[in-house]
Amino acid sequence: MSAEEASRLVMGAPEIGQALERLAAEVLARNADTGRLALVGIHTGGVFLAQRLKRLIEAGAARQVPLGALDINLYRDDWTRLTHHPVVRKTELNFSIDGRSIVLVDDVLYTGRTVRAAMDALIDFGRPDNIQLAVLVDRGLRELPIMATYVGQFVTTTRQEQVYVYLLESAGKDEVRVETPGQKHSAASAA
Predict the structure, then answer these.
(1) Which domains, from first to last, does the chain contain?
(2) CA quadruple 78, 81, 87, 88: dihedral, nearest 10
(3) pTM
């Protein structure tokens, strides 16, 4: 099997840009009171996407929206199976989440375990009024009953495939690919 057969482009830069614009419009439509709205990106890809959504939402709402970053590594139920030394990143929530509408942002929704861990971590910081979920890609195959409020694109995959999100901030390009196991990848988030 050639590298092109083992990898398929799902979204390029234009499609990612359009998806983020649509997600921002949907967030604004659902959250008329942007004074209570806050975005929280899940490390790492979700943080970059949350930064982009923040710019788009602020342009549409003409007001500032707080932005946070959340590390969920120690909240995962599988971290000991993944590694004996998890990479712990910085959680930054420089605002109170109490009574807010929090939009959790991640790049890929797959089993639901990352989102469950993110909600557990978030609740340790306070009690939001509600938590919504925005993802660039929903690949299905859930293990937990979790669904996104906002989805950039639904992608059909098998459990053997990986979805790689390459973002300009970390990989120098915007691209989403579905790849078969054993194929090389770099500077992308996989789920």
Answers:
(1) 13-158 (3.40.50.2020)
(2) 30
(3) 0.89
